[in-house]
Amino acid sequence: MSWRQVILLSSLLAMVLLCSMKQKIFMQESDASNFLKRRGKRSPKSQNEVNAENRQKLRDDELRREYYEEQRNEFENFVEEQRDEQEERTREAVEQWRQWHYDGLYPSYLYNRHHV
């Protein structure tokens, strides 16, 4: 393909994409005028507005719940890891103490020790 054909093909493709996107981006004139119309503060909300607000509140509640659940799970994992590490250190210390003070008898009792 020559460079002219490439440019022609790419510009044609861009024009087709823009035309198809125009239908998705812009709304009808009647919808646009209703969208921008302001409602008085004392006038009741339409059912669509109430539903939209309720959906937004439910979505916010769900996001908040997920966030705090994730934070709680991370903290629980952190605490569990800390506890496991502490138990491992304690077990190692006890094992070292037992090896150091082992008197050759099993079970090792203090009254089995031979004092010189």
Automatic annotation (TrEMBL):
The record's region (Disordered) falls at: 36-57
By its UniProt entry, which InterPro entries does this protein fall under?
UCMA
The role this protein plays is: May be involved in the negative control of osteogenic differentiation of osteochondrogenic precursor cells in peripheral zones of fetal cartilage and at the cartilage-bone interface.
**Which GO annotations describe the biological process of this protein?**
embryonic skeletal system development; regulation of osteoblast differentiation
Q: What is this protein called?
A: Unique cartilage matrix-associated protein
Which segments of the protein form a coiled coil according to its record? 68-96
Look up the signal peptide feature and give its range. Answer: 1-27
Specify the superkingdom. Eukaryota
Q: Which UniProt keywords apply?
A: Coiled coil, Extracellular matrix, Secreted, Signal, Sulfation
Where is this protein found?
A: Secreted, Extracellular space, Extracellular matrix
Q: Does the keyword Secreted apply?
A: yes
Q: Does the keyword Coiled coil apply?
A: yes
Q: Name one GO cellular component term.
A: extracellular matrix
- Family of the protein in this entry: Belongs to the UCMA family.
